[in-house]
Amino acid sequence: MNDAKIICHNLWKVFGPAAAHIADQTTPEMTRSAVLEQTGHVLAVRNVSLEVMEGEIFVVMGLSGSGKSTLIRCLSRLVEPTLGQILVNGADVTAMNERDLRDLRRHTMSMVFQRFGLFSHRRVIDNVVYGLEVQGMPKEQRLARARQILELVELHGWENHYPHELSGGMQQRVGLARALAVDPEILLCDEPFSALDPLIRRDMQNELIRLQKNLHKTLVFITHDFLEAIKLGDRIAIMKDGEFVQIGTPEQIVAHPVNAYVREFTKDVPRVKVLTARSVMQPIRDKTELIGKAIAIDTTLEALIPLTVDSDLGVPIVDQYENLVGVVDRKAVMLALADTLVEVSH
Questions:
Q1: Which helix (H) or strand (E) holds 317?
Q2: Is residue 22, in this structure, part of any structural domain at all?
Q3: Statement to judge: residues 211 and 316 lie in one domain
Q4: Helix or strand or coil: residue 100?
Q5: In sequence order, which ranges of 114-181 are alpha helices (DSSP H)?
Q6: Which residues pair with 189 in a beta bridge?
Q7: Quick one: which of 17, 18, 58, 291 has the fewest CB in 10 Å?
Q8: If we measure between CA atoms, which residue out of 226, 222, 228 comes closest to residue 113?
């Protein structure tokens, strides 16, 4: 049974007067720059297919101009796709009329923008209730809901202040609160923390992780920061020139980058905190060469180092059902840390 919340099939967004024709005629070997030079059209999103599972944080990561912000705007048709299909809860977004699309944006999807987008003339609580006003919720109900959400994002007591009286991080919390107030199933986050100072940005990342543990929303999160991507994402899609280059868990991408473009992002990642026993374990050939108690398959290399450093024997690895699935020894850990991963056999 497929529990995907969002499904995209062969999605294209081309900017130019003959967009659909150009998308249809573009062959795989034609580069984005070649299409621009030959036709004057920009391939912003090129034949992208994806599935975002319910309750997942799906991060789309890439450099400026890679197409990631255009992609997320296509999901709710803030930007009209050129070709392809978008399904949300099984409903075809690309076929929706204006009324259905408006209902989708009011009740199912909310967006959090990089620039906060707060109304400067409205108090914090009035900003938070905006979506509920649009929905037509009675005043007392929406104010009660807004206070509840402000407490959730730790802004209790700031209800009657104006945005300019708040720090950047607090303003972004208001933006997040406004999106959460309508209780959407899906949050679309377009680089929401990139305008913040590093320390505030880290705090907001932790805040999002905390909220997700309680709310279990489905998130599509856009970023150009790979460290942010691996911290937040259940899965990451690396985007370049409008296309997905690689999709996988943070561990899969750090352990097995598919090309030099992806490898460039991963080179400064603290591998000991990302890679786990799953990445480096090998088949058990001789149980007499095992030492110590079994360790979970998602144990990080950081935790494995002290268990393997003083012995040539291997640590047994078990899966979530306590089945013995492999072994990790000192050599495997050292090779992983040296950026030469042992091939995993299954």
A1: strand 315-318
A2: no
A3: no
A4: helix
A5: 124-128, 130-135, 139-152, 168-181
A6: 112, 221
A7: 17
A8: 222
Contacts of 158 (CB under 8 A, 6+ apart): 124, 150, 166, 170
Asked if pLDDT for residue 323 goes beyond 80, the answer is yes
Asked if 317 and 277 count as a contact pair (C-beta separation under 8 A), the reply is yes
pTM: 0.87
pLDDT at position 284, please? 87
Q: Is the pLDDT of residue 162 over 80?
A: yes
What's 193's DSSP letter?
A: T
Average pLDDT over residues 288-302: 87
Q: Residue with structure tokens 């730790």?
A: 154
**Which is more confidently placed, 197 or 73?**
73
Nearest CA to 177 out of 151, 138, 141, 203 is that of 151
Pair (333, 210) in one structural domain? no
Query: What are the pLDDT digits (tens) for 39-56?
Result: 999 999 999 999 999 999
**Predicted confidence (pLDDT) at residue 279 exceeds the cutoff of 60:** yes
Same domain, 141 and 163: yes
SS (H, E, C) 133-145: HHHCCCHHHHHHH
Centre a 10 Å sphere on the Cβ of residue 27 and count the other Cβ atoms it contains.
6
The closest of 101, 93, 32 to 67, measured between CA atoms, is 32
Helix (H) or strand (E) holding 296: strand 295-296
d(CA 43, CA 166): 39
Q: 222, 251, 266 — which closes off a domain?
A: 266
Quote the domain boundaries for residue 333: 271-337
Q: What is the pLDDT of residue 21?
A: 96
What lies within 8 Å, CB to CB, of 267 at 6+ separation is: none
Q: What are the pLDDT digits (tens) for 116-155?
A: 678 999 999 999 999 899 888 999 999 999 999 999 888 9
Type of residue found at 245: V
Question: CA gyration radius for the chain?
Answer: 23
Domain count, the chain: 2
